[in-house]
Amino acid sequence: MYTKKDFYYDLPEELIAQEPLKDRASSRLMVIDRATGKIEHKHFYDIADYIESGDTLILNDSRVIPARLYGMREDTGSPIEFLLLNKKSLTDWEVILKPGKRAKPGHRFVFGDGRLKAEVIDIINDGNRLVRFEYSGVFENILNELGEMPLPHYIKHKLEDPERYQTVYAKHNGSAAAPTAGLHFTEELLSSLKDKGVNIGYVTLHVGLGTFRPVKADVITDHKMHSEFYILPKETAELVNETKKNGKRVISVGTTATRVLETAGADGLPLTEASGWTDIFIYPGIKLNVIDGLITNFHLPESTLIMLVSAFAGRETILDAYKTAVRERYRFFSFGDAMFIK
């Protein structure tokens, strides 16, 4: 029975990357052989040396929306911050409010001199609110004008170019955080992989707080994940099945793509087209049925993300690798360096 302390490691604050590198692919890459525990130190542009013709990369093509809004309460003028999580309808969203404890159904808020208004409709999961927006025009256009990119709390620097918090293949709007393992890819690197005969498949998982929510329960099995919306297209399911049939590897780019594949493959292969909400929680002892390799970043201590990675590679292997990364001064978290587990 694992506790969250089983996934703790010491991290000096100065190793938390505050901004992205100028060249996406120049980040460092730790390569781990999960069978032997051997570690190699490379750069991300070397990834093609480890992926063979016929292997398949699965990428999450969700796009981050400017999901953080600053406004004020309509009656008192007191400041409020909204973080948009899940779109429920054309007008209704699940949001986190700060400060939110006093926000009750019927309370109203305004943003951008009244161009956007919102009313609290209900109190839902863990104190989140269901709110209904009022506006004229196209909501996405208003959000692009009034909203800000919702960078993680540990990034203190202002991001000069918001596109650096998007993958180069981001397509479908809906995430409150980037699927950061994919930030290392450039168009040129993806083209070189395709030229080598590597297959590229796409899934969509709109990243909410389910992925990043802190584990508060001491015993990790008591932790409840928030649901996130996913799509596994027919062509991607067929690509995974064909790759497996040919004896080649399915390599997931990031924990979010992994959660889509393992949700769809919970009962084994073959995969079929699927979409819906997933609250899958992967930790050591949970069998992974689909992925054969994983490209990922370095994750927060005691997070569900480091637990997922440990389920794939083994807890001791991962914690040893993280100690090595700290000693070798790797850069951590969203804008940090990468790891390939083969």
What is the number of domains?
Answer: 2
Low-pLDDT runs: none
Number of strands: 17
What do we call the CATH homologous superfamily of the largest domain? QueA-like
CATH fold annotation of the largest domain: QueA-like
Average pLDDT metric:
95
Shape: globular
CATH class of the largest domain: Alpha Beta
Strand order of the largest sheet: 2-1-17-16-14-3-12-13-15
SS content category:
alpha/beta
Q: What share of residues is helical?
A: 10-25%
Q: Encode the helix/strand succession as letters.
A: EEEEEEEEEEHEHEEHEHEEHHE
CATH architecture of the largest domain: 3-Layer(aba) Sandwich
Biggest sheet details: 9 strands, mixed
Rg over CA atoms, rounded to whole Å, is: 20 Å
Approximately what portion of the residues adopt beta-strand conformation? 25-35%
CA(first)-CA(last) distance: 26 Å
How many helices? The count is 6
What attributes characterize this protein structure?
six-stranded antiparallel β-barrel; Thrombin, subunit H; nine-stranded mixed sheet; 342 residues; 17 strands
